[in-house]
Structures are given as C-alpha cells and as structure tokens.
C-alpha cells in the first residue's frame, strides 16, 4: 500500500510503470479473453484531476496495455459528479457517494464489448460496481474489474 500511497499522494507517478505490469501479469491468468478487450480506468472528475494533476488509474491502465495487447479507452466512461473522497466513509456512505457519478460519452459504440475496468484501490467495490453498472447499461457485454490493491475489512 505504501507504493500506491506514494504514487497517488506524493506524485511518484513512475511507480505505475512497475505496478501496471504486475497487475497485468495477474489479469492475464484469469481473463478468458484479451482479443478485442478494452481497458478503461476509473475516471476522475475534472476538478479532482486538476487538483491531483494525473489519474492514477489511467497511469496503471497505460502500463497494462503492452502486456495484454488491449485497447485503451479513457474517454467513454466519465465521472460527471464531483464526489468527496471515499477514504473515511463507511460502506453505505461509499455507495451513496458514487451513485449517478458516472456516465458514458457517446464517442464509441460499446455494445457487445468486453471491458477491463482498472483502479488503484478497491475497498467496498462500490465505485467499480457503479462504473460496471453504467457500462452494462451502455451495452457492454462483460466487465472485469482489476484493482492493484484492496483494503481489508470492507469487501465481502
């Protein structure tokens, strides 16, 4: 978790170059499809992106691409509501915090596609669940979720 914290909050973005391939080596073992796969990072709201200066999920996704040979799509899934940080929220608050926070931009036809959704940390899974719900609603056939780490005590 220290490496993730350093990447995310101390601006050591170069860590994604090592952490992304680590994620990909895990994903390649359990994904039953890589051909035609779209990799989508969990998006940040534009305000949060300006505050942080980068999207850590996008950095990880870019580092996964060469290993999986998939296509990166960081424009279709968008965060449209500026939510407070999930850190420090309980499970119910986390779920409410991300409801209706995401949408699909009409730039690409997603019907029937398979998506690997990438994030740095999963706690309750609510953010990825909400993203997956929006992707499925847009016609994505299958959504796989991949997080670099998960925090103890919330996921079931």
Topology overview:
Elements (H helix, E strand, L loop, with lengths): L1 H8 L6 H15 L6 E5 L4 H7 L3 H13 L2 E2 L4 E3 L11 H8 L3 E3 L9 E9 L3 H12 L4 E9 L6
Parallel strand pairs: 1-2, 1-5, 5-6
Antiparallel strand pairs: 3-4
Helix pairs in contact: 2-4
Short description:
By secondary structure, this protein is α/β, with parallel strands linked by helices. It contains 6 helices and 6 strands; from the N terminus they run ααβααββαββαβ. The longest helix has 15 residues, at 16-30.
Question: Would you give an account of this structure?
Answer:
By secondary structure, this protein is α/β, with parallel strands linked by helices. It has a single domain (2-150), classed as 3-Layer(aba) Sandwich (Rossmann fold). The chain is 40% helix and 20% strand. The protein has six helices and six strands, in the order ααβααββαββαβ. It has helices at residues 2-9, 16-30, 46-52, 56-68, 91-98, 126-137, and strands spanning 37-41, 71-72, 77-79, 102-104, 114-122, 142-150. The strands form two sheets. Strands 2-1-5-6 form a four-stranded parallel sheet, with helices on both faces. A two-stranded antiparallel ribbon has the order 3-4. Strand 5, helix 6 (126-137) and strand 6 form a beta-alpha-beta unit. Helix 2 (16-30) crosses helix 4. The two termini are 20 Å apart. The model has no long low-confidence stretch (mean pLDDT 90).
